Amino acid sequence: MPIDCAFQNCSSLASITIPDGVTSIGDSTFNGCSSLTSVTIPDSVTSIGAGSFSGCNSLTSINIPDSATTIGNSAFRGCSSLTSITIPDSVTSIGERAFYECKSLTSVNIPNSVMCIGEYAFFNCSSLTSITIPNSVTSIERGSFGGCVKLRQNENGIYYVDGWVVGTDSSIVKATIKVGTRGIATEAFRSRSSLTIVTIPDSVTSIGNSVFYGCSRLKNIEVSTENKDYKSIDGNLYTKDGKTLIQYAIGKAESTFVIPDSVTSIGEEVFYNCSSLTIVTIPDSVTSIGNSVFYGCSRLKNIEVSTENKDYKSIDGNLYTKDGKTLIQYATGKTESTFVIPDSVTSIGEYAFTLCGSLTSVTIPDSVTSIGAGAFYNCKSLTNVTIPNSVTSIGDSVFNGCKSLTSITIPNSVTSIGAGAFYNCKSLTSITIPDSVTSIGEYAFQNCSSLTSITIPNSVTSIGERAFQNCSSLTSITIPDGVTSIGERAFQSCKSLTSITIPNSVTSIGDWAFQSCSSLTSITIPDGVTSIGEYAFQSCSSLTSITIPNSVTSIGEYAFQSCSRLTSITIPNSVMSIGNNAFYGCYKLKEVNYKGTEEQWNKIEISIGNSSLINAKRNYIK
Q1: Are 450 and 427 in contact (CB under 8 A)?
Q2: For 62-111, what is each residue's pLDDT tens digit?
Q3: Picking from 37-41, 380-384, 541-545, which range would have the lowest pLDDT averaged per residue?
């Protein structure tokens, strides 16, 4: 079993030979080994983990053995000296950001075994001039070749890479895809608001997801009648057999749309942000409906479903599964201010109420156990929601952007608060998190600018990145003993925060964790912390003194930069390095209490930009 992060940030490691018998390279194994110039991977390796060589910016070439079948996400991200790489026939997929910003890479041969190129896989490979994409590739995800300025060919506003459409000019109005094109990458025409018509030739065999996402003026998608995989009906895009509706041309002016009886599947985001439709009729033939199909349909008042449909039904114009257990979509163009979810419902679907501007109150029954991601996203008039005890988790972005929501009660049944769950709830003044919650996700309360206090229970073990960023009215917070890590930017720009107590259980303080907490006058860093991240306390302009515990071995770049009122600091002899500009702009720093000898002090690696620290009076404390 691989050990993740085994050699992470071993910045002096120049070469390594991985022995035969090793079958996988764990996640982030050599991440940040900035001096690594060569590595030998044996034939026994079958997988290269996520971020395994990320940031190895001295690595110039690498041979992946024939045994490897997967290249993980961000595997070689930021390997800026990498000029060539051989991908063997055994590899079937190239992960997200696998070669992101490999700026010296000039050419790549993708073997016939590869079927999928992950999103941003070759993003900003600015020296890449040639690539071979085999016929085996059926999907190229979004941004795969973004920033590859020497590779992409611009023909009439359409960007091509070896027979694939990968992007377009932002101002494109009419797009005629050239004959011979094999595929259209995911989101290739994303948010092209001037686009009115697209013509697809008979050669196209693959069209990615959300290709025409946000094309608000698109009125006609024309497909060659000779195309064997796709066709157009009334300007909308379907599979050739008519069974899947892939894209409705959302720039049409029609207020009603009846889905043809041939359709069995409605693809993801088919009607995304269609502002004209008020009524959509779904026939009995439909057995599958993709995610976010009616997202942003601001005038949609009625989703009609044939009574003969065996999988779905309509109640008062809203869409449910046939058994009534899942509310899939509330018709967001309705004008009612209140809504009571039926007792039959056990699950609220993803983005079910998204952008519903009229609702002020929603009643969720005790039958509901699951609330999908983004369920109430940007319901800007919503002031009141009661979450019943039956709910066990609050998903990602569930109440994101509910700017009128002033208070909410989270029941004891909830164990996790998802990423961005209350992001931008700018009227939320207080919230009580129950003892049942063990994790607070990234961005969970970011930009809750009216939040003045919050109690985090002892059950919580982690606080995600940016969890309370920009909670500018938050004056105090107690972090419980169970928390072991404080994520990056967790309390960044909490400008009213005057003090905070970090428990002994915390071992790491993330980059930017308390940056710009300009009212913070004191902070206690516990003995368990081994590193203080970059920018961790930058611009904490009210901080006057700080004691760094004996457990800390490194102080990150800009950690205390512009702490303009800092007059004294206590540094232990455990500290071996102080990063660039860690104390830059600490002009009032007059005294450094060092728990060690002068000889030990002189051995500390102090980087540039720390003259305030170096010039301060030093007291050597034994």
Answers
A1: yes
A2: 888 889 998 999 999 999 999 988 899 999 999 999 999 999 999 898 99
A3: 37-41
User: Between the CA atoms of 28, 32, 37 and 42, what dihedral angle is there, to the nearest 10 degrees?
Assistant: -10
Q: Tens of pLDDT along 492-510? A: 999 999 888 888 888 888 8
- For every residue of 133-177, DSSP letters joined together read --TT--EE-TTTTTT-TTT-EEETTEEEETTEEEEE-TT--EEEP
Closest CA to 190 of 214, 154, 166: 214
Euclidean distance between CA atoms 173 and 552, whole angstroms: 58
Half-sphere exposure of 378 (CA within 13 A, CB side): 8
Give dist(CA 420, CA 291) in Å, integer. 19
Mean pLDDT of 525-547: 91
Angle made by CA atoms 467, 472, 477, in degrees to the nearest 5: 60
460 token code pair:
């919580």
Phi, psi at 205, each rounded to 5°: -115, -10
Looking only at the bridges linking them, the beta strands covering 236-239 and 288-289 are: unpaired
| Residues with Cβ within 8 Å of residue 118, at least 6 apart in sequence | 73, 93, 94, 95, 96, 97, 98, 141, 144
With tokens 């994101």, the residue in question is: 400
Residues 153, 177: contact at Cβ < 8 Å? no
Determine the 3-state secondary structure of 478 from DSSP.
strand
* Residue 524: pLDDT band with limits 50, 70, 90: confident
Q: In 220-255, which positions are buried (b, 16+ CB within 10 angstroms) versus exposed (e)?
A: bbebbeebeebbbeebbbbbeeebbbbbbbbbbeee
- Reduced to 3 states (helix: H, G, I; strand: E, B; else coil), residue 602 is helix
Neighbours of 112 (CB within 10 A): 11
Cα 94 → chain centroid: 19
- According to DSSP, residue 598 is labeled H
Residue-wise DSSP of 607-620: -SS-HHHHHSEEEE
For 599, counting Cβ atoms within 10 Å of its Cβ (0-12 exposed, 13-18 middle, 19+ buried), the class is exposed
Band (pLDDT 50/70/90 cuts) for residue 1 is: very low
Q: Rounded CA gap, 441 and 594, in Å?
A: 38
Q: Is 283 exposed, middle or buried (0-12, 13-18, 19+ CB in 10 A)?
A: middle
Q: Which residue has the higher pLDDT, 381 or 499?
A: 381
CB atoms near residue 150 (< 10 Å): 11
By DSSP bridging, strand 545-547 and strand 347-348 are unpaired
pTM: 0.85
In this predicted model, what pLDDT tens digit does every residue of 123-181 receive, in sequence order? 999 999 999 999 999 999 999 999 999 999 999 999 999 999 999 999 999 999 999 99
Nearest Cα residue to 476 out of 458, 500, 460? 500
